[in-house]
Amino acid sequence: MPGRGLLRVLTGCTLLSLGAVTVVAQDRWPYMTLQTAPYEPPQIQITKSGTTDPGYLFVGPRGNRPAGTAALIYDEDGNLVYQGPEQVTANFRVQRLFNQDVITFWAGNMTDLGFGYGSVHILDNTYREIYTVTLQGDFETPDDSVPDSYIDLHESHISARNTLLVTAYNVTQQSLTSIGGTPEDYMLDSLFYEIDIATNEVVHSWSALEHADQIALTDSKQGIDDDHGTHEQPWDAYHINSVELFDQGYLISMRHYWSGYYVHSNGTVMWQLSGEPGKGDFQLDQAGAFSWQHDMRIYNETQTGMILTLFNNANTPSETVAPSTGLSYAVDLVNRTAKTLRTLGDSKDAIHSVSQGNYQQLSPSGHVVLGYGSIAKIKEFDANNKVVLTAQFGTDNEVASYRGYKCAWKATPFWAPAIVVRRVSGNSAQVFMSWNGATEYDNWAVMTADSLDSVNPTIVTTFKRTGFETSGTVRGLKTKYLQVVARRGDIPLGMSPIPYKPGAITPFNLPTTTTQPQNRIETGTELKMHLNLSSLTLTLCLSPLALALPPNPMRMTMKMTMKIRPTNQTLGHATILNTCQDPIYLWSVGSTISPQFTVPPNTTYTEPYRRDPASGGIALKLTRVQNGLYTAAPQMVFAYNLVERQIWYDLSDVFGDPFLGYPVKVEYRSVDQGEGRDEGDEGDEEKGIEWVDGVSPGGSMVRVAGAEGDLVLTVC
C-alpha cells in the first residue's frame, strides 16, 4: 500500500461549507433592495432559448454575505416570489406528503468537512410549518458539540410511504492501517435513516462502516493525508449524498466510491453500480463512466429494470477533469448492464462543478433540470437535450446552492401583505406593496376609509402586480385610513393587517419628496406583524411610514405609552385542527369554491375571516374522502359570517356525520388588550360548540363573538 499522503488525490468537498466560499473577495453579484421587506436576495439572471416547462425556481444560495443566504423562490422572469429566514439551507423544493404538495428544506450548521447538522422543515401551502423532523442518537461531532438534531444536509427525501429519508455523519475511531493510517485514527461513518414524519420515530437505519466487509475502505477514492484521521479532521471514506427507496430496500449514492449501492432492508449490500469501467456488478457502455457524483434517482422501476439518473460532477476542489453532466441510464437488472440514455451538458457553457449538484426529471415533458451545486447556475434541457433555460444567481465559485429545482407551486401565505406608505404631497402618497410567498394574486386594490371600523371602504385605485414588490402613487386622498388588498381579478385574497393613516405621519415631519429611506425595516418587524398581531404597538404600525426618518425620540415615547387595542385593527381567523389519524379534505365555499385542501393528521388549515362580495358568508366544508364535496360524502359544514366587527358562526352536518364517534369542538379564542391571547376569558366557553360523539346534540348551533378573536374547530 502507498504511504499516508500518497494514496490517491485528496478531494474533500470543502466548497460545500460556508467557510470555503467566504475566503473570496467581496461578492460582486447584484442584490435586490426592497421597501416592504428587509431582504436582499441575489438578482437572478434568466436566459431563455426555447420552450420551458412551467414552474418556479427553488434555490438555497450560500455565499460570502448573510443577506441572500436563505431559501428562495423565483419565477422565470427573474422576480423574487418568496424568501425564507436568513439561514443556511439545502434541498429546498416541493414534495408530496399525504397526497398534498408541501415545501421542504434542511436548515442548520455546515461544517468545513463538507456535511452538516440540522433539521428538516415541512411547510404547507400557507407556509405554516406542519412538521419538523429531527434526529437524536449516540453521535460524536468533530468539535464535541451537541446539536439539537444530527440530520445531515445531503438528503431530505419524502418517500412514497410518507416517511423521510435522511443522511447523517458520525465521527468514529477506526484502524486505518489498511490505507496507510494508524490503529487509532478517526473517520466519518456514513449513515442513513428512514423517519416516520408524523411521529419523528426512526423506522430504519443503516451504517456503512458496519458493512465494511462489503464496502471495503481500500476501495475509497478519497485520499488521506497527514492532516486527516484525527477527531477534529476525520477521514471521509464514503460521503453518502442521496437515498432512494428501491425494491426491498434502498439505493444510496457514495460520492467517494463513484458508486451507487442497493442496500436490502436487512442491511445487506446486494449490488454496486460503479462509474469506473470494470468495477462493480454492472457493465457500463463507453459513454457511461461517472465520478464524484450526486443525487442518484430511480424512475420507471420494474422487476427487471429501471431508469437511473445522476449528476456527474467529474471534478473535485483539487482536480478539474471534465465538464459536469447529467446522466441517465437504462439499467438491466437481469443482465447487469447500464446503457446510457442521455448525457446533458451545455457545449457553449462548460461548467466544472467540483461539489454538490442534482438531476431533476420533469414529467411528462421529458425536460430535465440540472443544479450545478458549487456553481450558482440552473439549466433546463428539453426532451432533445437542448438547453432552453439558464439561471444564474451568483458569481462562479463564490456562491453555491447544494441543489436547485424547478417546481410547480401554489401558495397563499397565512401572514398578511406588507405595505409601506410615503407622503408625496398633501393629498398624495407613494405606496409599496408585497406579499412574500403569494403566487395566486395578480393585482392590488388600494382602499380608503373614514374610520378603523368602516365596513364600506372605498377602492380608490388598483395596480397590476409587478414582481415581488409593486409600487404606485395614490392621489386625491380625502379620508384618514389607507389599506391594500391583494386580489386575483376581483377576488380578494389577503389584505394588509393594519390600516395606515397618512395624516398620522405629520408630527414626524415626513419629507414631501420620495427620498430613499435612511433607515430600513428592522429584521424582526415584519415577522412580528405577521405572527403576533396582538402585540403590535403604534410604533410598529407607523414604522414603515416613517422609514425616511432618522431615529426620533417621539417614536420612543409613543412606543412606551400608546398601545393600540388590536380589536380596532385586525380580524381573527377560522382554523381547522385535524387530530384524526387520517387526512381530512376541505373546501372554502362562498360564491366560488376553492380547490380541495388536504389537511394531514395533527396539522391545521387557517384562513383570515373574510366576507364574500356575493354570498356574504363563508362555509368551510369538511369530508374524510377525497373529492367528497362532489360525491355526496358525509360533510361537516363550519360556516361563518363577518358582519361589521362581529363574527356569526354555526356547525352542521349534511349527507351523514363524517366524524361519528369522535369528539368535535369549536372554541372561540379572544384577544386581550394587546399582550397576547387568553384562552380563558370569561364568557368564551358559552361561545363554543361541542359535539361529544361527532353528532349534533340538537338545538341552535348559532353563536356570535367579536371578530377580533379566532375560531378553532377541532375534529377527532
Automatic annotation (TrEMBL):
Keyword rRNA processing included in the entry's annotation: no
Superkingdom to which the source organism belongs: Eukaryota
Alphabetical list of InterPro entries matching this protein: Arylsulfate_ST (IPR053143), ASST-like (IPR039535), CetA-like (IPR006771)
Provenance organism: Aspergillus pseudoviridinutans
Name the record gives this protein: ASST-domain-containing protein
Keywords: Signal
Coiled-coil region: none
Signal peptide (UniProt feature, chain positions): 1-25
